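Lecture notes, part 5. Sequence design as translation. It can be helpful to think of inverse folding as translation between two languages: the language of shapes and the language of residues. The source text, in structure tokens, appears below.
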């Protein structure tokens, strides 16, 4: 470097790969900057050349600009001037531009525009400020013009973003004399997948279960379920606030009807959002097994079996660290539950009495009248909507004057459609015994299925909730709309035989182990039981009997 020669830094930027005609590309900008340095006595170095490609000047989050600012704001900056082709290349936001320039000026570095020379004098700062305001206003004007063009094309039913086409659609090109437009058309094979995703969401499948079934990432499935464009509407959101700025009805063919879409949105909102690991998944009792402290039981696994035949044990523990309740083995609880359902829920006498109760309730209810009432309200809402549209066509009212009223009517129509769809699923016909037998056979087959998802959905259809109390499990059941509660004995009540004294040592150990599980006694372990003598085993059993007699006597007094 030449001694005492001021050093300049170059900052180059282009907003996109297709620049406006009166702006130069990066190479042209640098050539002009080098010529300016030679004419004004500045030296430049390759290490102080910073360039941002295809990045807007509205934001300061630009890699090269950040590097430039960090170098220029050092205690002793290596250069005294930053050269740009135009002030708009440095920053298009007038407030941020003024702030950055003030920081640079305080550190002895100034920003120079070679295409916008500013004469020296008292009005130099005013002229520079006017140029910054003009650059920012150009960006806002350009953004507004782009938005108008996008909205105009969307109102005509054209798709304005050919690089991002919703899954299940394909683009159809419409060519005109001057340009070509795009419209969405249904791509049948992916569209069937979209319909399957919506139906599985209505059936209660989680995002993870749907992901495994359709071989698609959960994030993409969530985006599909929330995309209103699948209803045939063209919906445009603001990039900053994500609020709807334009909605065009019937802009393209619908893959999912509006009623199904609204029902899915309601289902997604009612699902419990839980970040804790173990509370969601395809495990059998995940989400339905609760502890007596009202906390969920989390699925866990551990190694089991022997060295020659290792296995994986599945169990559930309370999510509350302060709760001292014992863990629940999945296979044991499932076997006990199936046995209880077979005896108390799937019994023929129980099912016949349930069928009689359901038929009696359906005979008393008037589902047809409720449907007719909803249909009449839907017709009135359609009539009010048509009257408003007629007033707009006749010029009596404008779109802005009735936008709020029209929104309320549209929301009312959607709500009525959802209620009608729900009412259509309500069957008011008498239940046939043959249909019940087929239903029970299907449930039994699904409960014994090797598919974890199918087995869990079948279980949740009839057992929405289980509460574990240590020795007992309260099971809430629902079948054909009838709800009931069953009580399972998870740990059997220890039966002390009358000839206990003459039992073998191993039988006494097994009895003590059963008492320990039943009473949740954590003062001893299984290994300690194996080491207990005959007298210690007898004392433990006698202590249990005295405690039981005391509890029975207290219960009788109550």
């Amino acid at each position: 470097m030449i001694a005492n020669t001021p050093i300049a830094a170059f900052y180059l930027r282009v907003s996109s790969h297709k620049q406006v005609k009166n702006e130069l590309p990066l190479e042209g900008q640098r050539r002009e900057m080098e010529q300016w340095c030679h004419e004004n006595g500045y030296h430049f170095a390759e290490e102080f050349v910073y360039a941002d490609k295809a990045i807007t000047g509205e934001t300061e989050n630009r890699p090269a600009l950040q590097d430039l600012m960090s170098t220029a704001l050092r205690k002793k900056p290596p250069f005294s001037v930053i050269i740009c082709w135009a002030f708009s290349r440095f920053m298009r936001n007038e407030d941020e531009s003024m702030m950055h320039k003030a920081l640079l000026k305080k550190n002895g570095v100034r920003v120079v525009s070679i295409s916008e020379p500013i004469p020296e004098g008292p009005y130099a700062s005013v002229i520079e400020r006017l140029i910054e305001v003009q650059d920012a206003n150009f960006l806002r004007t350009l953004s507004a013009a782009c938005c108008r063009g996008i909205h105009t094309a969307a109102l005509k039913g054209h798709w304005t973003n050919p690089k991002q086409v919703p899954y299940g659609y394909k683009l159809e090109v419409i060519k005109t004399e001057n340009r070509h437009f795009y419209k969405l058309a249904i791509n049948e094979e992916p569209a069937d997948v979209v319909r399957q995703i919506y139906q599985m969401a209505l059936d209660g499948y989680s995002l993870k279960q749907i992901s495994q079934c359709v071989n698609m990432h959960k994030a993409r499935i969530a985006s599909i379920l929330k995309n209103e464009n699948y209803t045939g509407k063209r919906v445009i959101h603001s990039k900053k606030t994500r609020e709807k700025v334009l909605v065009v009805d019937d802009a393209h063919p619908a893959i999912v009807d509006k009623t199904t879409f609204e029902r899915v949105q309601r289902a997604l909102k009612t699902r419990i959002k839980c970040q804790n690991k173990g509370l969601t998944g395809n495990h059998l009792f995940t989400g339905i097994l609760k502890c007596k402290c009202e906390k969920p039981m989390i699925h866990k696994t551990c190694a089991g079996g022997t060295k020659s035949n290792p296995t994986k044990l599945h169990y559930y523990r309370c999510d509350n660290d302060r709760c001292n309740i014992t863990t629940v083995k999945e296979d044991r609880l499932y076997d006990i539950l199936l046995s209880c359902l077979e005896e108390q829920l799937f019994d023929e006498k129980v099912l016949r009495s349930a069928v009689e109760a359901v038929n009696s309730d359906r005979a008393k209810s008037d589902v047809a009248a409720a449907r007719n009432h909803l249909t009449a309200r839907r017709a009135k809402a359609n009539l009010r909507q048509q009257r408003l549209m007629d007033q707009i066509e006749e010029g009596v009212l404008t779109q802005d004057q009735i936008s709020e009223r029209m929104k309320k009517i549209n929301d009312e129509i959607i709500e009525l459609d959802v209620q009608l769809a729900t009412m259509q699923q309500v069957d008011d016909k008498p239940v046939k015994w043959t249909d019940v037998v087929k239903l029970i056979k299907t449930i039994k087959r699904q409960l014994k299925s090797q598919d974890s998802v199918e087995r869990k959905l079948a279980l949740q259809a009839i057992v929405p909730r289980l509460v574990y109390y240590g020795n007992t499990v309260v099971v809430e059941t629902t079948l054909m709309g009838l709800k009931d509660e069953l009580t399972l004995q998870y740990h059997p009540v220890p039966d002390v035989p009358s000839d206990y004294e003459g039992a073998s040592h191993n039988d006494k150990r097994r009895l003590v182990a059963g008492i320990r599980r039943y009473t949740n006694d954590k003062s001893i372990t299984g290994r300690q039981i194996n080491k207990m003598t005959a007298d210690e085993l007898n004392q433990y059993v006698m202590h249990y009997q005295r405690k039981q007699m005391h509890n029975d006597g207290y219960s009788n007094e109550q």
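The translated text above is only one of many valid answers, since several sequences can fold into similar shapes. Residues 273-278 have pLDDT under 50 and may be disordered.
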